[in-house]
């Protein structure tokens, strides 16, 4: 009996020891608040992937930061259009991968409402767009933007092969999915990699075709399509006269 009682006491002491060893360490005091100011959040880089509930279709006046970014690049001092005449559009779209993205473009303020409504309609119909970012990402080089299949609007420049200002110079023209919708002038095809899309009867995702979602969204609002032209044909191009 004595041995049994002694065994129980020793076991209880051992268990008590484990319990003490497992006590959490004392919480260290919180560090004193830093006197350094908190870093500002990094600016959003477009395009960026989002969730459907984050989709927006908005336009706003150009901020001081955007004005500085585009001056001397896609916009230069001229007598036709001022920075006050332009708007920054932030638009959601479906990518070719089925994911949702947020992109930006600059256009004339007077067509901003048209464009936000058009791109919202394209979004609802899940018309795919490869990429949408300001042409400053390509130093306002239209050929580089097309080669990257970038959808864009404003850029103060002449019509390719001429001395005439393009409607892009007035922010009243948009190029959509240049790879799937090339510019064709004689033997010239831009972008160069777009040869597989010269067959317009074989309609594939991202292509613009008469009666299609993208075509109808623009034409119903009074825009003209470069695919209807009889000279050089610009399948990617819509403009508002």
Description:
Residues 1-23 have low confidence and may be disordered. The protein is globular. 22% of the residues lie in helices and 17% in strands. The strands form three sheets. It has a four-stranded antiparallel β-sheet with strand order 1-4-3-2, with helices on one face. The relative contact order is 0.11. It has helices spanning 2-21, 64-70, 112-124, 142-147, 213-219; strands at 48-50, 57-61, 86-94, 100-108, 173-175, 183-185, 188-190, 224-225, 233-234, 237-239. With 241 residues, the chain is α+β, with helices and mostly antiparallel strands. Helix 3 runs antiparallel to helix 5. It is built from five helices and ten strands; from the N terminus they run H-E-E-H-E-E-H-H-E-E-E-H-E-E-E.
Short key terms for the protein model shown above:
241 residues; alpha+beta; three-stranded antiparallel beta sheet; 10 strands
């Amino acid at each position: 009996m004595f041995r049994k009682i002694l065994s129980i006491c020793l076991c209880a002491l051992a268990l008590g020891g484990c319990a003490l060893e497992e006590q959490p360490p004392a919480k260290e005091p919180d560090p004193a608040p830093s006197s350094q100011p908190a870093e500002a959040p990094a600016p959003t880089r477009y395009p960026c992937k989002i969730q459907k509930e984050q989709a927006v279709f908005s336009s706003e006046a150009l901020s001081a930061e955007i004005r500085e970014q585009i001056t001397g690049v896609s916009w230069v001092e001229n007598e036709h259009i001022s920075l006050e005449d332009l708007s920054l559009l932030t638009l959601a779209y479906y990518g070719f991968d089925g994911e949702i993205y947020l992109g930006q473009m600059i256009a004339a303020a007077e067509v901003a409402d048209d464009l936000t409504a058009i791109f919202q309609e394209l979004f609802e119909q899940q018309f795919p767009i490869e990429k949408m970012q300001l042409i400053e990402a390509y130093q306002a080089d239209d050929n580089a933007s097309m080669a990257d299949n970038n959808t864009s609007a404003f850029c103060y420049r002449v019509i390719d092969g001429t001395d005439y200002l393009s409607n892009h110079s007035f922010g009243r023209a948009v190029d959509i999915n240049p790879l799937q919708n090339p510019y064709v002038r004689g033997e010239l095809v831009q972008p160069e990699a777009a040869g597989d899309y010269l067959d317009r009867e074989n309609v594939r995702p991202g292509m613009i075709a008469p009666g299609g979602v993208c075509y109808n969204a623009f034409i119903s609002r009074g825009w003209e399509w470069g695919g209807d032209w009889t000279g050089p044909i610009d399948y990617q191009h819509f403009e508002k006269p």
